[in-house]
């Protein structure tokens, strides 16, 4: 009997994440994007490593945060992937816990911008993206975000609607270029309103922009880097602008549900996702830009992603508190000055 117990203990010690993970279920809430790739590159390998079961719930941010709120007293999700602003909203609502980064072996490998995005210790960034201007380099030159409104260019510009993910960041940078960078974004929205009849379209889906540029209906549009690949395949010269005011963008983060009974396992999964190996594989498949600074990418992948220390340092992200506290006002001003 004693030998059997010793053998059992030895087997437990050899388990990658320890015997405590066995027969346990971790439930995660994530975006529906690229789930086949995530299953192959992240979920299945983690299950094999931990000996646990991973349950994946997908949906848009509104639906997923609403579910977390509805189950606040008895959480059904252990870890969630959300935007920076949604993480702050969840924190304000008491839905998430502080992340014990001492239990994340890969935390120190992250770019500084991803270590504590909201400055409250409640989230860790796993991917970010740059937002800048894709433009026809044979037709125009972009040195500033304000160049989009130049008389000779504005009639060939598509600008993101304020209701899109790219809308507020683009307005934020336009405001900086115009010297009107108040949190209410009133200055840049009014400037757009004055030019609204000249602008080709206030787009809602970036997928429509590639065709518009191919047909020469537009010469320029603010886009997220994740949309850049489609422009590189055009048979016309398109460049990615590096305006003097800088680039903006967005970040997605991982959070731990408050009251979850599986926080230790959730932290292990978080650390796995942030590892150099997993972040490299996701980046090479063009799924996510890496937040891990040790990731080294092929030239092809790097050209299609937000990549490198210089880029990470240059991003001017809208503070989450500014976004949460001003969203309703942005929409109101937009509807008044630009229209629906």
Automatic annotation (TrEMBL):
It comes from the Bacteria. Keywords: Periplasm, Signal. Pfam families: SBP_bac_8. Residues 1-21 form the signal peptide. Gene3D superfamilies: Periplasmic binding protein-like II (3.40.190.10). InterPro entries: SBP. This is Extracellular solute-binding protein family 1. It comes from Rhizobium leguminosarum bv. trifolii (strain WSM2304).
């Amino acid at each position: 009997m004693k030998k059997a117990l010793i053998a059992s203990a030895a087997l437990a010690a050899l388990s990658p994440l320890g015997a405590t993970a066995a027969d346990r279920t971790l439930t995660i809430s994530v975006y529906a994007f690229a789930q086949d790739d995530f299953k192959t590159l992240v979920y299945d390998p983690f299950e094999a490593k931990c000996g646990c079961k991973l349950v994946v719930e997908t949906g848009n941010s509104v639906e997923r945060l609403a579910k977390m709120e509805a189950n606040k007293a008895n959480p059904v999700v252990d870890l969630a992937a959300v935007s920076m602003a949604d993480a702050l909203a969840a924190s304000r609502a008491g839905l998430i816990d502080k992340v014990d980064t001492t239990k994340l072996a890969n935390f120190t490998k992250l770019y500084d911008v991803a270590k504590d995005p909201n400055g409250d210790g409640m989230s860790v960034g796993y991917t970010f993206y740059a937002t800048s201007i894709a433009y026809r380099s044979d037709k125009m030159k972009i040195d500033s975000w304000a160049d989009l409104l130049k008389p000779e260019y504005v009639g060939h510009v598509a600008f993101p609607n304020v209701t899109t993910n790219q809308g507020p960041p683009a307005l934020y940078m336009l405001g900086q270029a115009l010297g009107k960078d108040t949190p209410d974004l009133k200055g840049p929205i009014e400037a757009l309103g004055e030019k609204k009849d000249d602008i080709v379209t206030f787009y809602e889906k970036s997928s429509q922009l590639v065709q518009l540029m191919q047909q020469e209906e537009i010469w320029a549009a603010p886009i997220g880097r994740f949309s850049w690949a489609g422009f590189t395949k055009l048979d016309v010269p398109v460049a990615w602008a590096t305006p003097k005011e800088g680039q903006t963008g967005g970040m997605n983060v991982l959070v731990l549900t408050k009251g979850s009974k599986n926080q230790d396992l959730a932290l292990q999964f978080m650390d796995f996702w942030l590892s150099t190996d997993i972040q490299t594989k996701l980046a090479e498949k063009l799924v996510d830009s890496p937040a891990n600074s040790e990731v080294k990418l092929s030239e092809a992948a790097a050209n299609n992603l937000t990549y490198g220390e210089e880029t990470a340092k240059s991003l001017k992200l809208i503070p989450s508190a500014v976004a949460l506290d001003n969203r309703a006002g942005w929409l109101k001003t937009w509807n008044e000055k630009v229209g629906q």
